[in-house]
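User: structure tokens for this one?
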Amino acid sequence: MKKKWLAALMTAAIAVAALAGCGASNKQDSKAEVKNDSKTFVIGVDDTFPPMGFRNKKNQIVGFDIDMAREAAKRMNLKFKVQAINWDTKEMELKNDKIDAIWNGLSITDERKKAMDFTKPYLENDQVIVVKKDSGIKTKADLAGKTVGCQKGSSAEDALMDDAVGKKIKGGQATEFDENVSAFEDLNAGRIDAMVVDSVVARYYIAKHKSDFKVLGESLSPEQYGVAVKKGNTQMCDAIQRALDDMKKDGTAAKISKKWFGQDIIYNWTAK
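Assistant:
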């Protein structure tokens, strides 16, 4: 997610943030306001990533993360703007100050933490394998020699390359897609045999489309979602974290979760 302004504020504060995220302590002022010359909080998203962020029938970008970010912007006393970006170049969008944050089901990884700063995790997730119900594929071992798809630049791609899955498809082929919807379409048409995708996306898509897909029981790469900002932009990161803390405390985050998932699946970062 986005890397923004205040590189001069690094040193000791960044060292602490590296260990515990960029969340403000409970002793700090709970107000989430942040100084921003543009007065607008711009988040970058993949607009084909339901239910986190996607376009509805009116071509508006909606989703769980959109609702969360909009509420956070309100608490930071900033206007809100959603900007669709190329997910494969998300780090560059952040680095070049084209966006203030990446808030779109972004998995926190050690590699990504080198390029951007993260809030504390707000959702847990894992990567799963989706196949057609009549495919005969029941385990990762059955992927040997198969064609497996994933979104380019995603955690699914990392899981596919690094997990045992990557070894199991030896003799097969890994196929990259610009977005997950195209991968689902190719899976449905039989152009690929399986795909690796975030579990929250897979289950939402399958339920929404009443499709003939199923999720294999073996999951990959347990992970957590966080909001990312430009490396060194401690002020923005802390403001977002304060907003998230307040949203969790007053039940707003749970309400948004129930709207999109039917239950409260917000990660309890305050207990960690």
